[in-house]
Amino acid sequence: MNTDANANANANANAMLAALAAFRDTKKFRCAEPEFRLINPSPASVTHPMEVALNQCATDLSSLVQRGAQSAQFKSCIAASLRSVEKPFDTEDREYLCYYNQLGQYVGIKVGPLLNR
Questions:
Q1: How far apart are CA 106 and CA 12, in angstroms?
Q2: How far apart (Å, rounded) are the C-alpha atoms in residues 79 and 105?
Q3: How far apart are CA 46 and CA 49, in angstroms?
Q4: How far is CA 30 from CA 9, 17, 41, 94, in A?
Q5: Are 114 and 75 spatial neighbours (Cβ–Cβ below 8 Å)?
Q6: Rg of the chain taking only CA atoms, in angstroms
Q7: How confident is the model at residue 11 (pLDDT cuts 50, 70, 90)?
């Protein structure tokens, strides 16, 4: 029975790590691309720091998953990342916060309370 629990925990950790790796590899803020400039005129100077923070958060969460961290550590990691970037403005703020919600889902935590601070 303990072997089954360990196998399940390893499978969950592997799924989390795969999701976080895919997240890092995905381009965020697609509207910053030249073909979408008319839809969303946000320059890279606005979106790039947010994307860097999101990718770093995903990397940090991956490290925590590998170490078998508890949910409080995941929350702390996401909260620190949210504080690391000056608050976004205009349309980017909703997209930016949605990405943190997505990261929380990957590691099994609710980030709503963190987003409302």
A1: 10
A2: 14
A3: 7
A4: 34, 23, 11, 14
A5: yes
A6: 16
A7: confident
pTM (two decimals) = 0.83
> 54 near 28, Cβ under 8 Å?
yes
Q: Which two tokens stand for residue 85?
A: 């970037």
Coil, helix or strand at residue 54: helix
| Residue with the two structure tokens 């998953």 | 65
Of 35, 40, 42, 16, the residue nearest 102 (C-alpha): 16
Residue type at 59 in one-letter notation: T
- Tokens, residue 8: 């399940």
Which has the closest alpha carbon to 66: 17, 113, 23?
17
In the chain, the percentage of residues whose pLDDT exceeds 90 is 48
85 CB-contact burial (10 Å; exposed 0-12 / middle 13-18 / buried 19+): middle
